[in-house]
User: What shape does this take?
Amino acid sequence: MKLDSKIPEGHISKKWTDYKDHLKLVAPNNRPKIDIIVVGTGLAGASAAASLGEMGYNVKAFCYQDSPRRAHSIAAQGGINAAKNYQNDGDSIFRLFYDTIKGGDYRAREANVHRLAEVSGNIIDQCVAQGVPFAREYGGLLDNRSFGGTQVQRTFYAAGQTGQQLLLGAYSALSRQIGLGRVKQFNRHEMLDLVKVDGKARGIIARNLVTGELERHSAHAVVIATGGYGNVYFLSTNAMGSNVTAGWKIHKKGAAFANPCFVQIHPTCIPVHGVNQSKLTLMSESLRNSGRIWVPKKKEDAEAIREGKLKPTQLAEEDRDYFLERRYPAFGNLVPRDVASRAAKERCDAGHGIEANDTNEGVYLDFSTEIQSKGRQAAYAKGNHNPSAEEVTKLGKQWLEEKYGNLFTMYQKITDENPYETPMKIYPAVHYTMGGVWVDYNLQSTIPGCFVAGEANFSDHGANRLGASALMQGLADGYFVLPYTVSNYLADEIRTGKISTESQEFIDAENNVKNSIESLLKNKGSKSVDHFHKRLGLIMWNKVGMARNEAGLKQAIEEIAALKEEFYNDVYVPGTADELNPELEKALRVADFIDLGQLMAMDALQRNESCGGHFREEYQDAEGETLRDDENFSFVSAWEYMGYDISKEILNKEELKYEFIKIAARNYK
Assistant: This one.
């Protein structure tokens, strides 16, 4: 496999502009002759489908949910980054570019990241025009807050529901195109295979999840925008339906899968509470603007808290270890997610965890300092320069409620604890995946005509994504990149004509899907799909999770290979193929997760360094920080599918070259 990133020549600040100026175009009168399939209707997919429909192409959009509004993008809470420097605190396009490269531990492609920073401001303008209700300051200007890994305020937000509001904006644009007939929406449909004709992506096989019918859909280009693969761990902050199937199917058809071991562990999740839990709930990183993270300094205090003999509010200030502020004074509680997560794990492993579960995993996120600070400010603004303690607390809580009210309500409903009165309990959990399908500068995979956008590709975040950058990438890809690069590809397709779904390639692809479904349904096993998914998740979390080592990774590879054989021999899938069958849906997805899990362990094993979310215990300094090996591992690992046996996959490397940023050890101290 040859990897050609197609990075343009020229200065980093001019690459994208000069490149756009020389891309091929499709004239407006020719666009209605061309069909495009978009799989996934989250921020990347909905914005791409809406934009391509607005341009005049015939678009088919697919989602497995009952509405595009239910895409997992809706769960993003904290905000979206953009380099507008509204706060006049030193931000710029270059600063956002630099922070993103540094936050990703120098494992992202330089040109793609700078393009992301360039178009970030346009995203905010677009969304404001759509009516997205961003928070505003007292004067009416858009407000900003900070997120991890930065020292400026560049995150635009809509209370604690930014993803929902952005998705509604994209959905409104998509709905307009549906109403005009330019986009045909297929809800409750799941892509189960990609169809290639003469080496090019020419369509998909989709299953109608209500009737079970397999459908053939043809197009001149296919866009995959189906999110990440965090659910390979079973327990994650992802929606339970989130999966890797679309990305894995195109991988099996020839698309390289890049950096699969780069997984983000988010530090601000409600801790696991039991073995029967099916998913985890995230508390927005935006809370780290106002909350301070701590554990008891003394192990005996931590033990007393776990046993219910001591309340956190009873612990004196001098007995609290604000460990992020202690270890990283320059950034404090706003260090990047991977740094904060490892620091929390280290404290809990050392016996200072405060949650009373089998593993004693949990730290506090405490808002008492902010309540007092903002309460005094609010009182002063009202002309009360000598407020009582009760007034200060009351006003401080009101300020918090205005800023984060829906997040606090959600936490209280889940835990039955009032975060205004007692600190939140949090612990790291699987959240986002930086790895994904390999794409070039055009967001095209190694399959011509197959483009990949948003979290489904690997291109922008390196080994660790900065908070509030997922929404930025999804909308950047859909609104401001794909309309140019897909059109450049389609300029050579205007004479192709309608693509028939009666060709042998479509027949073969449909038969392959049908055979896969039938083999699962005919299998007279004894164990449920969830049984295998949970076992896979335990292997992944324990051996390919927050900390990895050579022995554990080798064991994981063997255990997952054995689990795969057991799955195909002993899984039981009830029901039939020609009906609504959620267990069949899960079985098909878990089969892909098992293959991916093995590849993730293989990728982590070959990367003999620590970088970002990939932490190898053998490669850390005396203070427990990551030790990169830039001489030997400054590359994107792009894996090539070679058949049923995942251990036979071939590693291809795209060397990473930094021309405009000086590589250095990450330092947040």
